[in-house]
Design the sequence.
Protein backbone atom coordinates (compact mmCIF):
# COMPACT_ATOMS: atom_id res chain seq x y z
CA UNK A 1 0.00 0.00 0.00
CA UNK A 2 1.21 3.51 -0.83
CA UNK A 3 -0.21 6.51 1.04
CA UNK A 4 0.57 10.20 0.79
CA UNK A 5 -0.74 13.44 -0.62
CA UNK A 6 -0.90 13.99 -4.37
CA UNK A 7 2.19 15.14 -6.23
CA UNK A 8 4.74 13.27 -4.12
CA UNK A 9 5.56 10.73 -6.81
CA UNK A 10 3.89 7.64 -5.30
CA UNK A 11 2.89 6.13 -8.64
CA UNK A 12 6.24 7.00 -10.19
CA UNK A 13 8.12 5.30 -7.37
CA UNK A 14 5.99 2.15 -7.58
CA UNK A 15 6.56 1.96 -11.33
CA UNK A 16 10.29 2.49 -10.75
CA UNK A 17 10.49 -0.20 -8.07
CA UNK A 18 8.91 -2.90 -10.20
CA UNK A 19 9.82 -1.67 -13.70
CA UNK A 20 6.22 -1.64 -14.81
CA UNK A 21 3.36 0.77 -15.47
CA UNK A 22 0.56 0.02 -13.05
CA UNK A 23 -1.48 3.09 -13.95
CA UNK A 24 -1.46 3.51 -17.75
CA UNK A 25 -4.88 5.21 -17.92
CA UNK A 26 -5.02 7.12 -14.64
CA UNK A 27 -6.99 10.37 -14.61
CA UNK A 28 -5.11 13.24 -12.97
CA UNK A 29 -7.66 15.43 -11.13
CA UNK A 30 -7.66 19.18 -11.54
CA UNK A 31 -7.22 21.60 -8.64
CA UNK A 32 -11.00 22.13 -8.51
CA UNK A 33 -11.65 18.37 -8.34
CA UNK A 34 -9.14 17.95 -5.52
CA UNK A 35 -11.04 20.37 -3.27
CA UNK A 36 -14.01 18.01 -2.87
CA UNK A 37 -12.20 14.78 -3.66
CA UNK A 38 -12.62 11.86 -1.28
CA UNK A 39 -10.11 9.10 -0.65
CA UNK A 40 -10.45 6.14 -2.99
CA UNK A 41 -8.90 2.70 -2.80
CA UNK A 42 -7.27 1.64 -6.05
CA UNK A 43 -5.84 -1.91 -6.05
CA UNK A 44 -3.77 -3.12 -9.00
CA UNK A 45 -2.35 -6.64 -9.32
CA UNK A 46 0.65 -7.54 -11.45
CA UNK A 47 3.01 -10.49 -11.72
CA UNK A 48 6.70 -9.65 -11.49
CA UNK A 49 9.80 -11.82 -11.68
CA UNK A 50 12.65 -11.27 -9.25
CA UNK A 51 15.78 -13.45 -9.50
CA UNK A 52 13.86 -16.13 -11.36
CA UNK A 53 11.01 -16.16 -8.83
CA UNK A 54 7.56 -15.05 -9.98
CA UNK A 55 5.68 -12.87 -7.51
CA UNK A 56 2.03 -11.85 -7.50
CA UNK A 57 2.06 -8.26 -6.32
CA UNK A 58 -0.98 -6.19 -5.39
CA UNK A 59 -0.32 -2.46 -5.04
CA UNK A 60 -3.02 -0.49 -3.22
CA UNK A 61 -2.97 3.22 -4.02
CA UNK A 62 -4.99 5.85 -2.15
CA UNK A 63 -5.65 8.79 -4.48
CA UNK A 64 -7.24 11.77 -2.76
CA UNK A 65 -5.47 11.31 0.57
CA UNK A 66 -4.83 14.68 2.22
CA UNK A 67 -6.04 16.66 -0.81
CA UNK A 68 -9.37 18.01 0.44
CA UNK A 69 -9.78 21.12 2.58
CA UNK A 70 -10.94 18.98 5.51
CA UNK A 71 -8.63 15.99 5.88
CA UNK A 72 -9.70 14.98 9.39
CA UNK A 73 -11.28 11.66 8.39
CA UNK A 74 -9.41 11.05 5.15
CA UNK A 75 -7.65 7.94 6.46
CA UNK A 76 -10.84 6.17 7.62
CA UNK A 77 -11.44 4.49 4.22
CA UNK A 78 -7.87 3.18 4.39
CA UNK A 79 -8.43 1.74 7.88
CA UNK A 80 -11.67 0.19 6.65
CA UNK A 81 -9.89 -1.40 3.70
CA UNK A 82 -7.17 -2.92 5.92
CA UNK A 83 -9.81 -4.26 8.35
CA UNK A 84 -11.90 -5.64 5.47
CA UNK A 85 -8.94 -7.68 4.24
CA UNK A 86 -8.36 -9.04 7.75
CA UNK A 87 -12.07 -9.88 8.03
CA UNK A 88 -12.03 -11.62 4.68
CA UNK A 89 -8.99 -13.69 5.66
CA UNK A 90 -10.59 -14.58 9.01
CA UNK A 91 -13.75 -15.82 7.26
CA UNK A 92 -11.71 -17.84 4.76
CA UNK A 93 -9.61 -19.28 7.58
CA UNK A 94 -12.78 -20.45 9.32
CA UNK A 95 -14.06 -22.15 6.16
CA UNK A 96 -13.50 -25.64 4.77
CA UNK A 97 -11.02 -24.77 2.00
CA UNK A 98 -8.24 -23.48 4.27
CA UNK A 99 -5.36 -24.75 2.14
CA UNK A 100 -6.13 -22.45 -0.77
CA UNK A 101 -6.73 -19.09 0.92
CA UNK A 102 -5.81 -16.07 -1.19
CA UNK A 103 -3.97 -13.64 1.08
CA UNK A 104 -5.09 -10.08 0.25
CA UNK A 105 -3.96 -8.59 3.55
CA UNK A 106 -1.80 -5.44 3.43
CA UNK A 107 1.72 -6.54 4.36
CA UNK A 108 3.49 -3.20 3.94
CA UNK A 109 2.54 0.48 3.75
CA UNK A 110 4.88 3.05 2.23
CA UNK A 111 3.92 6.37 3.79
CA UNK A 112 5.19 9.34 1.76
CA UNK A 113 6.29 12.44 3.66
CA UNK A 114 6.46 15.83 1.98
CA UNK A 115 10.11 16.98 1.72
CA UNK A 116 9.19 20.66 1.84
CA UNK A 117 7.93 20.55 5.43
CA UNK A 118 9.88 20.63 8.66
CA UNK A 119 9.19 17.06 9.62
CA UNK A 120 5.82 15.34 9.73
CA UNK A 121 2.53 17.22 9.66
CA UNK A 122 -0.29 16.54 12.16
CA UNK A 123 -2.06 14.49 9.45
CA UNK A 124 1.03 12.32 8.98
CA UNK A 125 1.24 11.67 12.72
CA UNK A 126 -2.51 10.97 13.02
CA UNK A 127 -2.42 8.50 10.14
CA UNK A 128 0.56 6.57 11.47
CA UNK A 129 -0.90 6.38 14.97
CA UNK A 130 -4.20 5.12 13.55
CA UNK A 131 -2.62 2.35 11.48
CA UNK A 132 0.66 1.37 13.13
CA UNK A 133 -1.05 -1.52 14.98
CA UNK A 134 -2.67 -2.78 11.78
CA UNK A 135 0.05 -2.70 9.13
CA UNK A 136 3.84 -2.50 8.72
CA UNK A 137 4.52 1.20 8.09
CA UNK A 138 7.68 2.18 6.19
CA UNK A 139 8.18 5.99 6.16
CA UNK A 140 9.49 7.42 2.89
CA UNK A 141 10.74 10.95 2.18
CA UNK A 142 9.43 11.77 -1.29
CA UNK A 143 11.32 13.67 -4.00
CA UNK A 144 14.62 13.66 -2.17
CA UNK A 145 16.26 15.38 -5.15
CA UNK A 146 14.73 18.65 -3.93
CA UNK A 147 16.93 18.53 -0.81
CA UNK A 148 20.64 18.87 -0.20
CA UNK A 149 22.51 16.05 1.53
CA UNK A 150 22.54 17.91 4.84
CA UNK A 151 18.83 18.74 4.55
CA UNK A 152 18.11 15.03 4.04
CA UNK A 153 20.11 14.17 7.18
CA UNK A 154 18.31 16.84 9.23
CA UNK A 155 14.86 15.83 7.97
CA UNK A 156 15.49 12.15 8.72
CA UNK A 157 16.52 12.99 12.27
CA UNK A 158 13.47 15.22 12.77
CA UNK A 159 11.10 12.51 11.52
CA UNK A 160 12.64 9.81 13.73
CA UNK A 161 12.46 12.14 16.74
CA UNK A 162 8.75 12.70 16.04
CA UNK A 163 8.18 8.95 15.67
CA UNK A 164 9.71 8.41 19.11
CA UNK A 165 7.91 11.40 20.63
CA UNK A 166 4.44 10.29 19.53
CA UNK A 167 4.98 6.58 20.22
CA UNK A 168 4.59 5.49 16.60
CA UNK A 169 5.56 1.92 15.75
CA UNK A 170 7.08 1.64 12.28
CA UNK A 171 8.22 -1.63 10.69
CA UNK A 172 11.20 -2.86 12.76
CA UNK A 173 13.92 -4.33 10.59
CA UNK A 174 14.87 -7.63 12.28
CA UNK A 175 18.24 -8.17 13.89
CA UNK A 176 20.74 -10.31 12.02
CA UNK A 177 21.54 -13.78 13.32
CA UNK A 178 24.99 -14.37 14.76
CA UNK A 179 25.82 -16.84 12.00
CA UNK A 180 25.05 -14.40 9.14
CA UNK A 181 27.96 -13.43 6.92
CA UNK A 182 29.60 -10.03 7.33
CA UNK A 183 28.26 -8.62 4.02
CA UNK A 184 24.65 -9.32 4.99
CA UNK A 185 25.15 -7.84 8.46
CA UNK A 186 26.59 -4.70 6.88
CA UNK A 187 23.64 -4.52 4.49
CA UNK A 188 21.18 -4.73 7.39
CA UNK A 189 23.05 -2.01 9.26
CA UNK A 190 22.91 0.33 6.24
CA UNK A 191 19.19 -0.35 5.75
CA UNK A 192 18.43 0.51 9.38
CA UNK A 193 20.43 3.71 9.17
CA UNK A 194 18.57 4.73 5.99
CA UNK A 195 15.12 4.86 7.64
CA UNK A 196 13.16 6.92 6.68
CA UNK A 197 14.17 6.21 3.09
CA UNK A 198 14.81 9.35 1.01
CA UNK A 199 13.89 8.35 -2.55
CA UNK A 200 13.65 9.57 -6.12
CA UNK A 201 11.46 7.78 -8.65
CA UNK A 202 11.90 7.89 -12.42
CA UNK A 203 11.72 5.49 -15.37
CA UNK A 204 13.37 7.84 -17.87
CA UNK A 205 16.58 6.44 -19.37
CA UNK A 206 19.33 9.00 -19.90
CA UNK A 207 22.98 8.68 -20.89
CA UNK A 208 25.67 9.72 -18.43
CA UNK A 209 29.34 9.37 -19.42
CA UNK A 210 28.46 6.81 -22.05
CA UNK A 211 26.38 4.81 -19.61
CA UNK A 212 22.58 4.49 -19.72
CA UNK A 213 20.93 5.04 -16.35
CA UNK A 214 17.50 5.83 -14.93
CA UNK A 215 17.46 9.38 -13.68
CA UNK A 216 16.50 13.03 -13.95
CA UNK A 217 18.53 15.66 -15.74
CA UNK A 218 18.75 19.14 -14.25
CA UNK A 219 20.70 22.26 -15.31
CA UNK A 220 23.14 21.61 -12.48
CA UNK A 221 23.59 17.89 -13.06
CA UNK A 222 21.96 14.46 -13.11
CA UNK A 223 20.18 12.55 -10.33
CA UNK A 224 20.58 8.81 -10.80
CA UNK A 225 17.72 6.83 -9.28
CA UNK A 226 19.85 3.73 -8.66
CA UNK A 227 22.92 5.55 -7.35
CA UNK A 228 23.22 5.07 -3.54
CA UNK A 229 25.10 8.37 -3.33
CA UNK A 230 22.07 10.24 -4.73
CA UNK A 231 19.12 8.62 -2.89
CA UNK A 232 17.93 5.54 -0.98
CA UNK A 233 15.99 3.97 -3.87
CA UNK A 234 18.21 0.87 -4.05
CA UNK A 235 18.08 0.46 -0.26
CA UNK A 236 14.28 0.66 -0.26
CA UNK A 237 14.03 -1.91 -3.04
CA UNK A 238 16.54 -4.19 -1.31
CA UNK A 239 14.62 -3.92 1.97
CA UNK A 240 11.34 -4.82 0.28
CA UNK A 241 12.76 -7.86 -1.52
CA UNK A 242 14.98 -9.27 1.23
CA UNK A 243 12.40 -8.71 3.99
CA UNK A 244 9.28 -9.72 2.07
CA UNK A 245 8.92 -12.94 4.07
CA UNK A 246 9.41 -11.11 7.36
CA UNK A 247 6.79 -8.51 6.39
CA UNK A 248 4.31 -11.34 5.83
CA UNK A 249 5.23 -13.04 9.10
CA UNK A 250 4.86 -9.84 11.15
CA UNK A 251 1.49 -9.25 9.48
CA UNK A 252 0.36 -12.77 10.37
CA UNK A 253 1.81 -13.08 13.86
CA UNK A 254 1.30 -9.52 15.14
CA UNK A 255 -1.21 -7.40 13.21
CA UNK A 256 -3.60 -10.17 12.14
CA UNK A 257 -3.50 -11.84 15.56
CA UNK A 258 -4.33 -8.48 17.19
CA UNK A 259 -7.31 -8.11 14.86
CA UNK A 260 -8.40 -11.70 15.45
CA UNK A 261 -8.17 -11.29 19.24
CA UNK A 262 -10.31 -8.14 19.07
CA UNK A 263 -12.92 -9.92 16.96
CA UNK A 264 -13.07 -12.85 19.36
CA UNK A 265 -13.31 -10.49 22.34
CA UNK A 266 -16.22 -8.62 20.75
CA UNK A 267 -18.09 -11.79 19.84
CA UNK A 268 -16.90 -13.81 22.82
CA UNK A 269 -19.71 -13.16 25.34
CA UNK A 270 -22.50 -13.71 22.83
CA UNK A 271 -20.67 -16.76 21.53
CA UNK A 272 -20.46 -18.24 25.04
CA UNK A 273 -24.15 -17.59 25.68
CA UNK A 274 -25.09 -19.16 22.37
CA UNK A 275 -22.92 -22.20 23.05
CA UNK A 276 -24.35 -22.56 26.57
CA UNK A 277 -27.90 -22.29 25.26
CA UNK A 278 -27.17 -24.90 22.61
CA UNK A 279 -25.71 -27.24 25.24
CA UNK A 280 -28.88 -26.89 27.33
CA UNK A 281 -31.03 -27.68 24.30
CA UNK A 282 -28.89 -30.69 23.43
CA UNK A 283 -29.02 -31.87 27.05
CA UNK A 284 -32.83 -31.58 27.13
CA UNK A 285 -33.08 -33.49 23.86
CA UNK A 286 -30.86 -36.28 25.17
CA UNK A 287 -32.88 -36.49 28.40
CA UNK A 288 -36.11 -36.74 26.44
CA UNK A 289 -34.67 -39.43 24.21
CA UNK A 290 -33.48 -41.41 27.25
CA UNK A 291 -36.92 -41.18 28.84
CA UNK A 292 -38.55 -42.43 25.63
CA UNK A 293 -36.12 -45.34 25.42
CA UNK A 294 -36.70 -46.25 29.07
CA UNK A 295 -40.47 -46.21 28.55
CA UNK A 296 -40.09 -48.39 25.48
CA UNK A 297 -37.87 -50.82 27.40
CA UNK A 298 -40.47 -51.02 30.20
CA UNK A 299 -43.22 -51.80 27.67
CA UNK A 300 -41.09 -54.49 26.09
CA UNK A 301 -40.26 -55.92 29.52
CA UNK A 302 -43.97 -56.01 30.40
CA UNK A 303 -44.75 -57.72 27.09
CA UNK A 304 -42.02 -60.30 27.68
CA UNK A 305 -43.27 -60.93 31.23
CA UNK A 306 -46.83 -61.33 29.95
CA UNK A 307 -45.72 -63.68 27.17
CA UNK A 308 -43.66 -65.71 29.64
CA UNK A 309 -46.67 -65.97 31.96
CA UNK A 310 -48.91 -67.14 29.10
CA UNK A 311 -46.34 -69.75 28.06
CA UNK A 312 -46.07 -71.01 31.64
CA UNK A 313 -49.86 -71.22 31.89
CA UNK A 314 -50.04 -73.24 28.67
CA UNK A 315 -47.43 -75.69 29.96
CA UNK A 316 -49.37 -76.20 33.19
CA UNK A 317 -52.55 -76.85 31.21
CA UNK A 318 -50.82 -79.37 28.99
CA UNK A 319 -49.36 -81.20 31.98
CA UNK A 320 -52.72 -81.34 33.78
CA UNK A 321 -54.50 -82.57 30.65
CA UNK A 322 -51.94 -85.34 30.15
CA UNK A 323 -52.37 -86.58 33.72
CA UNK A 324 -56.20 -86.74 33.45
CA UNK A 325 -56.04 -88.68 30.21
CA UNK A 326 -53.74 -91.27 31.76
CA UNK A 327 -55.99 -91.77 34.79
CA UNK A 328 -59.02 -92.41 32.60
Sequence:
Amino acid sequence: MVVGESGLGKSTLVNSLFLTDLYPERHIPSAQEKISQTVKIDASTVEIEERGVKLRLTVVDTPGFGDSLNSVDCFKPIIQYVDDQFERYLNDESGLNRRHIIDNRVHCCFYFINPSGHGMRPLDIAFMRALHHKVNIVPVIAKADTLTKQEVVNLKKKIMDQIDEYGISIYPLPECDSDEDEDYREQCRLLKEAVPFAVVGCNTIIEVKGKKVRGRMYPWGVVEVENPEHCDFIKLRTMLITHMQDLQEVTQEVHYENFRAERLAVGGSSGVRKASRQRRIDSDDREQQLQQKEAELRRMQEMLTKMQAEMDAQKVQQQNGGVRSHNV
The mean pLDDT is 81. Residues 90 and 260 are 7 Å apart (CA to CA).
